[in-house]
Amino acid sequence: MVKILFVCLGNICRSPMAEFVMKKLVEEAGLSNCVYVESAATSAEEIGNPVYPPARRELLKHGIDCTGKAARQLRRRDYPQFDLLIGMDRANLRAMQRICGGDPEHKMRLLLDFIPRGGEVADPWYTGDFETTWQDVEEGCRGVLAEIRRREGA
Ligand code: 4NP
After folding, report:
1. Among 15, 61, 118, 136, which one is most buried in terms of CB atoms within 10 A?
2. 110 - beta bridge partners?
3. CB of 11 within 8 A of CB of 72?
4. 73-114 pLDDT, tens per residue?
5. 109 to each of 13, 89, 112, 137, how far by Cα in Å?
6. CB 8 less than 6 A from any atom of ligand 1
7. Could you tell me the CA-to-CA distances from 154 to 2, 82, 109, 145 in Å, in that order?
8. Looking at residue 85, what DSSP letter applies?
9. pTM of the model
C-alpha cells in the first residue's frame, strides 16, 4: 500500500482537487487496493469547510464528485503515516517541514516535481482561474501515478 497526502494552504482548492483527481486515476488504473489518498492544509483557516465551490465545479466539469470532503490540518503524526507528502507550492513545503519537524525520510515533494517541466501548481485563490489549476493538478497526478507504477511494479 502506498499512502499519499496532498497538501496546500487551505485544503479547500488545490490539494482536494489533487486528492480527487488522484483517486480517479488510481481507480481507472485498477490500483485502488494498493494506493490510499488524502489531503490536508498547512493552515487552520478552513478546518471543517467543504471544497470551495469553484474548485468543486471544476472537478464536476470533469465528472469528479468531491462531496463529503472537509478540510483538515496537517499534523506531525501524519508524517510517519504517509509514504509521500506532496505540496502544491514551495511555501506549502516549508510549512509542511515546520509542522512535521523536517523531512528526515525525504518523503516530501512538489506535485509538479513528478513531471518534466516542474514548477508550482497555479494558485487559483486570487486569480479565480481554476482551469489552469485543473491542468497542473491533472498532469502532476499522472506523474505521481507513473512513479507509483515504477515503485510497485504495477
Ligand atoms: P488552497 O487555496 O490552499 O488551494 O486550498 C486557498 C484557500 C484559502 C486561502 C488561500 C488559499 N485563504 O487565504 O484563506
Report:
1. 15
2. 87
3. yes
4. 999 999 999 999 999 999 999 999 999 999 999 999 999 999
5. 18, 9, 8, 14
6. yes
7. 12, 19, 21, 10
8. E
9. 0.98
Tens digits of per-residue pLDDT, 11-46?
A: 999 999 999 999 999 999 999 999 999 999 999 999
Q: Alpha helices, DSSP H only, in 8-77?
A: 14-28, 53-61
Please give the full DSSP string across 55-71, using - where no structure is assigned: HHHHHHHTT---TT---
CB of 56 closer than 6 angstroms to any ligand 1 atom: no
Which residues are designated catalytic? 8, 14, 123
Let me know: does 115 contact 18? Beta carbons within 8 Å.
no
> How far does the centroid of ligand 1 lie from the alpha carbon of residue 152, in Å?
33
* E strands, 24-107, in order: 35-41, 84-87
